[in-house]
Amino acid sequence: MDVPLITFEGIDGCGKSTQIEMLKKYFESQNVRYSIFREPGGSDIGEKIRAILLDKSNAKMDSKTEFLLFAASRAQLVHEKIMPQLKTGEFVLLDRYIDSSVAYQGFGRGLGKKIITVINEFATEMLYPDLTFYLEIDEETFAKRKGFEKDRMESEDIDFIKRVIEGYNYLSDSKRFVKIDARADQRLIFQDVVREIKNKFNL
């Protein structure tokens, strides 16, 4: 039986949160049980870690510190929230998960894929998503969409964002990835999301 764990990935401004909100309403209309979590965060401990990670006053944070904080938040979320929900048969929708660390810390920060993967697998007890939507936008679209006040991660320069996009494109070769052009209308994107979920889980 497929594990109903669905993740949404992409650089900031790609529309992940919008698609998750639309999917939430769709699941409710179809009487599908679900839970939604975000990374970093999703648990009391995780939300405290999130505040540290996104605080712009922590600009001197070392890249290794950053990744290990993400991994700590992730470990708590999997243990406290995700695993128990999956055991009930509920769909779990995640706004970011393990692939964000490969893209942002592995490629963006230059820590490399190997160490990120090893620690991710330790933190999550080898729990991989069954389906991952990669909402792809380029750096120009990112710049246009992120005109408001940015947190620490969103304040990185375009060269960093380019490396993150490179990381996501590397990951998107995986069979569990569905790459979607997120420059399109949100309603059209959502049609693609629902179609993939219906096909994967026989809804």
TrEMBL record:
Q: Which residues form the Thymidylate kinase-like domain?
A: 8-189
Residues the entry annotates as binding ATP = G10, I11, D12, G13, C14, G15, K16, S17
What keywords does the record list, in alphabetical order?
ATP-binding, Kinase, Nucleotide biosynthesis, Nucleotide-binding, Transferase
Record-linked CDD domains: TMPK
* GO-annotated molecular function: ATP binding; dTMP kinase activity
Enzyme class label: transferase
Q: Which reaction does it catalyse?
A: dTMP + ATP = dTDP + ADP
- What is the top-level taxon of the source organism? Bacteria
What do the Gene Ontology cellular component annotations say? cytosol
GO annotation, biological process = dTDP biosynthetic process; dTTP biosynthetic process; dUDP biosynthetic process
Q: Which SUPFAM superfamilies match?
A: P-loop containing nucleoside triphosphate hydrolases (SSF52540)
Enzyme Commission no: 2.7.4.9
Q: Is the keyword ATP-binding in the record? A: yes
Per the entry, what this protein does is: Phosphorylation of dTMP to form dTDP in both de novo and salvage pathways of dTTP synthesis.
Tell me its family.
Belongs to the thymidylate kinase family.
The name this protein carries in UniProt is: Thymidylate kinase
- Organism equals Mesoaciditoga lauensis
